[in-house]
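Hi R.,

Here's the chain you asked about this morning:
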Amino acid sequence: MTVYTVNPELDLVLERRVDVAPELVWRAWTTPELLMQWFSPKPWSTVACEIDLRPGGRFDTTMRSPEGQEFPSSGCILAVDEGSTLVFTSALGPGFRPQVTEDGFPFTAVVRIEPDGAGTKYTAVAIHADASAKKSHEEMGFHEGWGAALDQLVDLVKAG
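And the predicted structure, written out as tokens:
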């Protein structure tokens, strides 16, 4: 599968090496029951998740704030390379149907999972339409939030 080329003017990147096997990272990303346990940085939580793991399939989550407010997000899976690449977007709903997003800026996520010795090289890229959307996502705490969520993923799979 062709890997997306990052545009530093428009995209945010989180790249880390983690000491868990790639297949466990993949399973945590693609199994709704597991994703709900790590996807939202604490004290937030993910209270609903539906994944139809195929191009055109749904990638839906609902996050809950510490105050109890819920934030549903509906998206579409664009590409799946089993075990290594997951690409989804909030710009489209299931079946590639265009949709209006509630958060004000749709984005596409490219998650790459690659073997790295006994662990995994993990790369998550958030692709934005313009510099303003990138800035908004960055100011929302992209690096901190996605980094904390990755730490939670690692803790979950290590706990087994």
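The CA atoms of residues 29 and 73 lie 16 Å apart.

Let me know if you need anything else.
M.
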